[in-house]
Amino acid sequence: MKTPLTGILPVAPTPFHDNGAVDEDGMRRVLDCMIDQGVDAICILANYSEQFVLSDAERETLTRLSLEHVAGRVPVIVTTSHFSTQIAVDRGRMAQDMGASMLMMMPPYHGVGLAPPEQGIFEHFAAVSDAIDIPIMVQDAPLSGVTLSVPLLARMAKEIENVSYFKMESPFAADKLALLIEAAGDHIAGPFDGEEAATLLADLDAGCTGTMTSALQPELIRPIVVDYLAGNIEAAQTGWRDALPLINHENRQCGLRAAKVVMKEGGVIGSDHVRHPLKPMTQRTRERLLQLATERDVIALRWGK
Questions:
Q1: Most exposed: 81, 83, 100, 160, by fewest CB within 10 Å?
Q2: What domains are there in the chain, each with its CATH number?
Q3: Catalytic hit among 158, 167, 260, 305
Q4: 167 has catalytic annotation
Q5: Using 50, 70 and 90 to split pLDDT, how confident is the model at 22?
Q6: How far is CA 15 from CA 140, 186, 235, 236, in A?
Q7: What SS3 class is residue 200?
Q8: Cross-referenced PANTHER family, in alphabetical order (predicted)?
Q9: pTM for the complete prediction?
Q10: 87-124 per-position pLDDT tens digit
Q11: How far apart are CA 120 and CA 118, in angstroms?
């Protein structure tokens, strides 16, 4: 990519049939819906894609299917995280060979008691970078339990050729983004936030240039980023206030199930099944989600009708 990505790069949910099998046709419809939402790129196989319940064979199938179906209409970011450096390298090569525009990776982790030291994390990302020639987005998320210090992230940006995007989801993300931008400067092509854009306005104040949300309402969150970066701060604040109730309900009550529930209701996919041990959301939470999504008139709620 010659021009750095900005805007909104949402995570695609992985649709399953009611019996738990991957819904390949549903995946194609998810991708088409997201493109119609006006996204700037699509991320697949992330945590909100339920990557942790997918087999290696399913990952490969979904990567190939997604890249072939999107066919260059928007960039596709493939999440390739793994504790094993060699597996992360192999996943990265495969994604690049299939046509990925970027990789996203969490630091290597396996529970709170098994995480490498900072030098091991640096070497992990460096090994993947040496094997590819597309950008890498570092995902700094509480899920890993791994602390990525600002000095480590700045060193990675400066010394690892393809590490140039950062997705900040840690507590006090805005302050960390600001410190990282100050420390690494032009070595960062894309400072992004996540967490369904729950802290977007503060993160934009800190210097982020985009957000990675779910596929629930990207068409309504993207204008907040566009307006802010264009200097239309009042319009961005208005958009933020309008978006916040649905953002908050998704982030605090629904999690990765939200986009699936709305997409099923909107005819994008046939089932909102999540694989065990995950459980469906309660009827109470579902009703509030659909009420808020209806008020926002989100595209996913009416795309397939």
A1: 83
A2: 7-301 (3.20.20.70)
A3: 167
A4: yes
A5: very high
A6: 25, 38, 35, 32
A7: helix
A8: N-ACETYLNEURAMINATE LYASE
A9: 0.97
A10: 999 999 999 999 999 999 999 988 767 778 999 999 99
A11: 5
